[in-house]
Amino acid sequence: MAEPEADWDQGKLSVTMGERRRSGSFTDDYSIHKTNDDATYCKRAAVQLGYYDDPFINRFVQASSSTNDMPIRRDPEISRGYWARVKAFRTLIDQFLQKAGPSCQILNFGAGFDTLYWRLKEEGAKFRRYVDVDFSSVTAKKIRMIRKPGKPDLVSIIANDSSTELYESGHTDLHGGDYHVVGADLRQARELHEKLVAAEVDFSLPTVIVCECVLIYMAEEQSASLLKYLADSFPTVCFINYEQVNLSDTFGAVMQRNLNTRGINLAGMAACQSLESQKKRFLENGWTHAEDWRMDIVYSQHLPKNEVERIEKIEPLDEKELLTQLLEHYCMVVAAKDSAGLGLDAIKF
């Protein structure tokens, strides 16, 4: 789904950006779909400059071959933010994989063009099943990009032995080996359940759900329904959520105004007002454990100091106020149910 940081990808991160005009969209959902493209370009910009390594991101950038290798300019604050997000997610996911073992499952909700599956496979991570979930219009595009010839060969990584065959359903779902892409509206629990069943998800296995800037686009009752469905369906499950927080101050208001100019409504904003409200929606809907951290704290206290020093040399900042403001308005939440006693409630920074 969408990643609102992408709306800060041109010019300085200042209040004046809130006045920038954007082209309109036909529907809220269409506008949300388009921010997936923005986020993909932001990630590629960070990768090109060496913030982190992702040899697969170029396969999902919608650009002609003549421009595909040209550097994309983004503000340093944006690139640092994406690096921190990627590093934070891997820190938490790696802990889950270590605790859950190779029989676990990974579900990526609102996956967009995320490349996490291929990055995990390249690094030798072991899991039973990986499922990307997003709107059907997004998954249809992702499947075409996966199948398109190029290097690295994404299909060969999925079909890692001669017995694996990839097959599509309705041009929006792809199944093969341990990887699945399914088109579903996360606001529709029945549709989501049917797609997870089609992807051969085993609800009894330890499962981690990865979610980046998704719940905020749902009405509170819709996200609550989704979280309750997941808590009721998976006895041993971890939910890792990256999302906005502290939206009631001036900087938060600018973020909202930027999205509004694009026709995007933050329907779930009430749950993003504070760290407490972020945790509360999990604990009120069947999850037994929840912890959260603002991203400025994650960046300054919990990520490896040597790596922070490395990425800060890539594009030095004269002052860090804007970066700090940006990071203060995002958070990581880890919620869990741990019927198997695997220690999922100990996953943290």
What does this protein structure show overall?
One of its GO terms (molecular function) is protein C-terminal leucine carboxyl O-methyltransferase activity. InterPro entries: LCMT1 (IPR016651), Ppm1/Ppm2/Tcmp (IPR007213), SAM-dependent_MTases_sf (IPR029063). Keywords: Methyltransferase, S-adenosyl-L-methionine, Transferase. It is an enzyme of class 2 (transferase). Its EC number is 2.1.1.233. By secondary structure, the protein is of the alpha/beta class. It has one domain: Vaccinia Virus protein VP39 (Rossmann fold, 3-Layer(aba) Sandwich), CATH 3.40.50.150. 40% of the residues lie in helices and 15% in strands. The protein contains twelve helices and nine strands. Strands 3-4-5-2-1-6-7-9-8 form a nine-stranded mixed sheet, sandwiched between helices. Strand 1, helix 3 and strand 2 form a beta-alpha-beta unit. Helix 1 crosses helix 2, helix 2 packs across helix 12 and helix 10 packs across helix 12. It is globular. About 7% of the residues have low confidence.
Subunit organisation of the chains: single chain
The CATH homologous superfamily is called Vaccinia Virus protein VP39
Helical residues, percent: 25-40%
CATH class: Alpha Beta
Shape: globular
Distance between the termini: 25 Å
> DSSP strand (E) fraction?
15-25%
Helix and strand content put the structural class at alpha/beta
Uncertain residue segments: 7-27, 63-67
Rg calculated over all Cα atoms: 19 Å
Describe the main β-sheet briefly.
Answer: 9 strands, mixed
- Write down how many β-strands occur, each being a DSSP E stretch of 2 or more residues: 9
CATH topology: Rossmann fold
Q: What is the CATH architecture term?
A: 3-Layer(aba) Sandwich
Average pLDDT over all residues: 89
Order of helices and strands: HHEHEHHEEEHEHEHHEHHHE
Count of helical stretches: 12
Q: List the strand order in the largest sheet.
A: 3-4-5-2-1-6-7-9-8
Q: What's the number of structural domains?
A: 1
